[in-house]
Amino acid sequence: MTAQSIFRIGLLRLTDAAPLVMAQECGYFAEEALEVALSVEPSWANIADKLCYGLLDGAMLLPPLALALRFGLSGSAGPEKIIVPAALSLNGNTVTLSERWTTAIAGNDASRLGKLSADETARRFATILRRSPEKPHLAVVHTFSTHNLLLRYWLATAGIDPDRDVTLTVVPPAQTVEAMAAGRIDGFCAGAPWGEVAARAGLGHAVATSHAIWNNGTEKVFAVRQALVEQSPGRLQAVLRALLRAAAFCDTPANAPEVARLLSQQKYLGLPAEIIQTSLPGAASRRPPTPFVNTDVSVFFANAANFPWRSHAKWFLREMRRWGYLDAGADLDAAAAAVFRPELYAQAARSLGLPVPAAEGKTEGRHAAPWLLPALPAPIPMGPDCFLDGVGFDPES
């Protein structure tokens, strides 16, 4: 095939790259007559730049970053417009603090840390900060990331001002552990498996997970150049079908050892499969008894994980406005509709016989227990969607 016919997809060294890797390694792309080249990039900024300049056709991406690109906020000013036809995962991040801070939060009894809820660790952290003359340095993986917004949400629930009481900095996910080991940061919010890697290195522990902050919020999305939709719609549908099949494979707990083995290869994560398994579906049943849980388990298919909810886009946009990244007059509804494209997902899902949600948005924070989402041809079983502070979110309000 010519270079122009190869579909180039960017990813980072993260557990939630699993659907992309498995679509390649299990032959789902090949079965759709696609030749795909996976490109492991060093940072989210690299991925954004390459997408915007057409050096990548698609990539795993942070939802807030995909939206920021629409507003020209990320620094990537290439000619390509970016859209999101599918999501890749839910959950998967941890707020990991160094031993010094986690010991203080646990009241000098580290074994208690795993028994504390995310809102309790936030309140204890706030109490410690009020007494401390130091401002801890906390890393997020990109300014326009779920990690930044969720970390800020966790801090703010306890009255901690993310812009005054701590110092936030950007560190690519694969560099967070090194930065903590060198003493450059006191903690980070990053995707799996880096919280587990930090814990095994004796550097710190998780004090909150993204699932605890927002149950089953969208974590990574699949983003593509808008031109692809216009010029090669059939090719995009082939990619989406392969990714949906791979997502279902990744979400099956019995497949976790194989998924971890393939992700562990040097060309992908380059980490022991045992560490990667801690963040894959079914991890709780494989985990030995321990007072610490340093990973959040990714969801790749269940709970309508692959649907690009415009309501989730609106939540990210409202949080971006809350923290001053967007002007008060920014048209959030228009941005959500332009970037998140559920009709493209729906076409691929229907071709595979999968149920499709009946609406493009839903409220959040209303379900503390399993529930059924209206969908066709059959309802979709869903998990909780609560926020740690009990606040609800209505995208239409």
Explain what you see.
- There is one protein chain.
- With 397 residues, the protein is an alpha/beta fold.
- The chain is built from 18 helices and 14 strands.
- The protein has helices spanning 18-25, 28-31, 44-52, 63-71, 99-105, 118-131, 146-157, 176-181, 194-200, 210-213, 226-231, 233-250, 256-263, 273-277, 283-286, 310-322, 332-339, 342-351, and strands spanning 7-11, 36-40, 58-61, 82-90, 93-98, 137-140, 167-170, 187-191, 204-209, 218-225, 356-357, 371-373, 375-376, 380-382.
- The chain has a five-stranded mixed beta sheet, with helices on both faces.
- Strand 6 (137-140), helix 7 and strand 7 (167-170) form a beta-alpha-beta unit.
- Helix 1 (18-25) packs across helix 12 (233-250), helix 4 (63-71) packs across helix 17 (332-339) and helix 12 packs across helix 18 (342-351).
- The longest helix has 18 residues, at 233-250.
- It is globular, with a radius of gyration of 20 Å.
- The N and C termini lie far apart (50 Å).
- The model has no long low-confidence stretch (mean pLDDT 95).
